[in-house]
Amino acid sequence: MILSVTLTCLIALIFTVLGLAKALALPKMRELAAEAGFSVAAYRRIGVLELAGAAGVALGPAVPLLGGLAGAGLLLLLAGAAVVHLRQGDPVAGLAPAAVCAVLVAGYLVALFG
Known about the structure:
Layout: H1 2-23, H2 27-36, H3 40-59, H4 64-88, H5 92-113
Helix pairs in contact: 1-3, 1-5, 3-4, 4-5
């Protein structure tokens, strides 16, 4: 139970912060969007999806289906992030944040449904 609550809070916090930064098009996010080959508008849409995922994960303990769908959506976003990093030729360290977040989300889904 404690692990489930911890994962829920951690994932919701991470994706709320990242999603807000992208949706608000903060200067660092504009820079990262350009490096990845995204327009600012596209990066904002990714941020909105991250915010929706964070909200769904936060509601997951009360509405498990919603939490599961949100977790699956976040995993898809993270897979997309990994593809972008690989196409850019980023070092393994560039993939680490997406990989760590994917492990957290996968753990959340196991805790939610396991």
